[in-house]
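Work Package 3 (structural annotation) set out to generate three-dimensional models for the target panel prioritized at the project kickoff. During this period the team completed the workflow that converts sequence records into discrete structure tokens, so that structures can be stored uniformly alongside our sequence database. As a representative example, we reproduce one entry of 226 residues exactly as it appears in the project archive.
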Amino acid sequence: MELTNEFEVPVDVARAWEVLTDVERIAPCLPGAQLTEVEGDEYRGTVKIKVGPITAQYKGTARFTERDEATHRVVLEASGRDPKQGQASATVTATMAPAPGGGTAVRVVTDLTVAGKVAQFGRGVLAEVSEKLLGEFVTNLETDVLAAPAPDVPAAASPAGSSSGEASESTEGVRRIDGPEAAPVDLLDAAGTPVLKRVLGLIGGLLALLVFRRLLRGTRDLGSSS
């Protein structure tokens, strides 16, 4: 399924590009996500979610397959799985452009594939969830990252196409990322009204079925007594 989200950040495009292509800086801003390792250009981590009493932890990887600073377009391939709850993969394409009122407008198109218990929500609910989670991500980004002054990174320290000097530590071995454990995202709480509507619709359908069966039974009883 394809999900499209848009948001704005109160910085120019150059600064937005620098921040939004720096996975180590923005990963803690995404609810439920935790970056644990970096090896070369591959990022590894977990995303925790809850569906009612069920908690799933998707362990996976992400890698930039395209990063075009001239057009401010970036493509990220990500995949993860939980042994019991299923798997998910996504191709995320983000484009950045100056916003009419200042700042940067970001458009994110996610081609998402899910299997397992999370897939039961369907496209409508997942779209609602992604919109809410993206809103939380932007709030965290503005508070924890964009509010801080831009780091001074010597030009020679950054390889071509990279956003910061940290990416130059890439080629040899696995680098562990230490950080606080992320709390799981409660999908029922994040989905809110769409899930409630689905539950109410299901209850309404069951009630209608029970009433119909009761009426049918009453008709049969009348027929047998006449």
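Helices lie at 13-20, 23-26, 122-146, 187-191, 193-225.
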